[in-house]
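Objective 1.3, modelling of assemblies. Example input:
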Amino acid sequence: MSVSPGRSAGGTALADRSPSPEAAPPLSISGLRKSFPGRTVLAGLDLRITAGRLVAVLGANGSGKSTALRCVVGLERPDGGSIRLHGEEIVGLSGRELARRRSRAAMIFQKIHLVQRRGVLDNVCAGALGRLPLRRSLTPALFPRELREEAMECLRRVGLADRAGDVVGRLSGGQQQRVAIARALCQRADIVLADEPVAALDPAAAAQVLELLSELAREQGLAVAAVLHQPELARRYADRVVGLARGRLAFDTSPGHLSDRDLDDLYATGEAAP
Amino acid sequence: MTTGTRVPAASGRRSPSAAGAAVVTVLVVLHVLAWQGTGFSPADLVRGWRGMADFAGEAIPPDLSWPVLGAGIRAALVTLYIGLLGTTFSVPFALVLAVLGARTTAPNRWVYQAARSLLSFLRAVPDVVFALIFVTAVGLGPFAGVLALIFHNTGVMGKLWSEAMEEIDLGPRDALRTNGANGVQVVAHAILPAVVPQFVGLLLYRFDVNVRSSLVLGLVGAGGIGFLVNQSIKLFRFDQMATHLLIVLVLVVGVDLLSAAVRRRVAV
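Predicted structure (tokens):
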């Protein structure tokens, strides 16, 4: 089950650019390292996620799950290693080129992070900000009509077309998380990274959100990675389960093969490290 | 003062009563110095009561004849206009400086420091001083008052707004950054929508303050009813002055009620 740290792969990532990016996996992380003052969070993580699959990411607190996702979307700057989106390296890049390559990955947050005082449709449209010129995006009133139609389509996909005109603050937590997923769709992301997307939701809403994510993976070919706290949810909804411990990949298996032993080891190592 | 209540630590064993006595002594000395420095003298006030009584006798009853009242109301409108334009025209400048001078939205540390310094400067120079400067440029009159308020209010409102922006939840900002929005888009779609109620509340509060400031600006020649108050004192027409002060009272209370009512509405 153990996977080699793959540091050599990370070192040559820039040189050996894949000739046809379409053949490359949507997200490929190798040898990723990240430390915060006083502790190492990622110690050479290797992880690939594939199109059309929902990958559940398990691990104890502090195992580096969230940090890994945050490095991919640019909320943390990795110390080293390689992150490739569709074969294109993004570690070490900056500015427009980085923003362009990264726009294919969207993040879903535990705390949802929609703009509470804006309407549902405006929040979904905001997913497209990265590709809109300033003169069409300074206020929601300037959003092009095609964008509104596309955003409506995204809302329909998550089953909330009838709430398009509501203010976000009026929706339940589960509905808000689905609006956040619609925002990711409106971003035209084909990689969706969800950081504990259902940790703050009741079981019914959690099931709805995970079902939606796995449908989007299967039907629209998105590559989805979801950090989950409950192994049962992983067994039920994921196509693949990976475990992180101490900033490295601990196992990578199918839900059917996920043994209690794997899980005990995973959470035990987590507890050993304070 | 807190040393008195703190559990005695390794640092010196000064008893609480000694520290307290030292603080009280310093405060008493300061107040004695201030008493002398300001020529504070209740005896003078008692001796001069006759002057005040004469003054009040002349001021009451106020001169409510139409020429005086009409001129007062027209001037009060000018005062209101000075406050209004001074507040409104400072909005774009205050907004830009607030965004650049808030830790959550500043593009980098240098811009942040520069914006903060400019805001501090505009705040530190009183509006009356700005008015005196602009009177030399554009002459006596309300325009100088408007300019003075724009400058001073930009400093105060920019600071208040930037603090409001530093207190919001940064989640939506991070979320929009990850989907590729640039700095201006993040401010327009994540930061500003979250602070609109606070911004409007602070804006109305500043309008309230600015109308009152524009009265004082009138005293230094920037037009409005403050100018009439000053003039009637100089002409010893205390009955007219009383009329103008009554109009000021109505104006200030009216603006205060209005801004309080709107703020209650927006706060929801």
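DSSP finds nine helices and ten strands in chain A.
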